[in-house]
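@channel sequence for tomorrow's demo:
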Amino acid sequence: LEEREQRLEEILKQYKQTAAFEGAGTGFGGFWLGLADFPLFLSIKMKFLFDAGQLYGFNVDSYEEKVFLLNVFMLAFSSDDARRSMKDVVLDWEQIPQSRKQIDWKTLQIEYRDTLDFVKLLQLFPGIGAAVGFIANGRLLQHLGETTKNASRLRLLNS
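structure tokens (generated this afternoon):
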């Protein structure tokens, strides 16, 4: 577990740098380049999440593991109320029935959007958008990394 987490910290550092520079680049361009930030940053986060899942030994090609990782994503980027309900699903993943191992796409989209609204709005302003994008993307990826590490650690220890 210690070796996995050291490796996770290494790849998290790389992904944070990529995300920060992507945020700065798209923030620098103002509104039009800022529109490109959402899909670019989302793809960086998803790639990190699946790389981290592989690092912890999860079969990320299976549907069930993909759903687990999306639940971890929701745990990281949701409101407090949604996070409380997601926490139980993630922590008891091995014990919950197959019927609950699914993703509510509408909730995922709404929670994710609402979590990032204000920060990403500031990124659309030329000039300050670059600084906001650089800092925000790095911090958001760090948050995803911590959530992924803790959820994976607890899952391995519970099984």
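heads up for whoever presents: Helices lie at 2-28, 30-55, 63-76, 80-91, 105-123, 128-158.
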